[in-house]
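ugh ok fine here u go
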Amino acid sequence: MDPIIILGILLALLFNFANGLNDAANSIATIIATKALTPLQAVLLAGVFNLLGPLLFTTAIAATIGRAIVDPSFLTPALIFMAMTGAVLWVLATSYLGIPVSSSHALIGGLLGASIAAVGTGAVIWPSLAVVGQVLFYGLIGAILGAGVTVALTLGKGDFNPWNLFIGGLIGVTLAIPLAIATGLLKVSGILGVLVFIVISPMLGLISAFAFGIFVVHIFRNYQPRRLTSLFRNLQIFSGSLQAIGHGGNDAQNAMGIITALLLAGGLISEFSVPLWVILTSSLAISVGTLLGGWRVIDKMANKITRIRPYQGFAASTAAGGVLSLMNVFGVPVSTTHAITGAIMGVGATRGYSAVKWGVVREILIAWVLTIPAAAVVAGICYLIGHALMSGVF
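structure:
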């Protein structure tokens, strides 16, 4: 086996390890915040269910990473290696700084940066104008319907505010596009799907967690606070497990897609089919990273966005786990960080606007926006340096 392929596989596994290190907060932040489990117990729980996630879902996301972002005919072992280098450097740097970023988006940025540096923009699989037009069409329909419903509800209560039109429209877009995808009316994949769900996934998490949190409050409004705390701390173990399964099923497939693409580029397999040993080692790498825990990220997610009560932790984890499971089914590599952060904001907002620390949220949002271009720049520079030093390999 070519040494560059071996190094690429090891680097892909290191990426999944770094993914688990950064994204450990996704599965356990709410559990730690409400003291449903000790930090060690929470990390062990997340590690086990991260391992199970990829075994329960299909490998559709791995195929998206390996075949739908960059034209596979341009992928070489050296190019993939440098793409992984850029992604790993970005994820490790943000983990050290305690900033929760999307490892999936870092990997996609790495692939884009290295490919553009090597071949040019022609290597990227750009969406057709027809598909972009369909996304805009369904988004517009959703915005109009969402704004219309908001106007009807607020006018009926006599508290109409023009700002509500924007909120209603955004909610409409967030619900309309996934619904169109689920019903088969809209087929979004590749880079377009990633970009669309940068907005959709945190909003889905926020809306579903907010609605579920309000529902839980209504159902259990007459329960004694002490009894509620005990009940939802136990339920959080279930919801945290669901979320960890969704996280593992989505993010562990990043390395699966890269390793399979490496094997295909090196001629070791004849078609893009993820081998069982790749599934197992990728899952194990992300689980080990989670077991070690990214404690700075966990602290920010658990304590800095909003004060989380047990019922809110349950609502946030359940909502985020549901969003991730849905995206796993459709093969969309969304950010688990985006989904759970949105869910935490959603349950915080059930207590009012001021319950959420929007300054912290703004810092996280900036990191989200920067991740794909930053990882692309780092990977592109790594490729150019590698090409200059080892032109025979590249």
